[in-house]
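Please check the following for our workbook:

***
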Amino acid sequence: MNRLSLKTCCFTGHRTIPVKEIDTVVNNLNKAVLELIYEEFTHFLSGGAIGFDLLAASLILTLKQQGHPITLEFVIPHENHCEYWNEKQRLLFHNLCAEADAISVLAEKHFDGCVKKRNHHMVNHSTVCISYLRKSISGTGQTVRYAVRNQLHIIRL
């Protein structure tokens, strides 16, 4: 699928969000997504990681339940993606996956670079990237730099 064929947005962000920032992040994320929906964006990609990815996916599903004509696709780096998570995290992930419109699993097993491959896949299939970036030396920073090189519009929260 050509990334320009749909108005698609991907999310990238850190696995931890400081408690004092959560309300601000949620409010800014909600505002950014609603603006994209107003601009007729319909498809949203989440990497399914703990933290920002699952927060963004939860928001998309909430907005969809409110009647917005949008879809959520999880792009998972490999099968058993959440095998080392705690039970609460796995339950949240599986519940969100059950409500998602699509789940793309990019590899059968974990390999060095599989998360980077997932991030590149999301960027390659998007025109906008919403990022929660606090540390540039990180997978999120790497993804944002890749998105900039690929001329995506970056919305920084």
Remarks:
- The longest strand covers residues 8-13.
- The chain has one domain: 8-156.
- The CA atoms of residues 26 and 55 lie 8 Å apart.
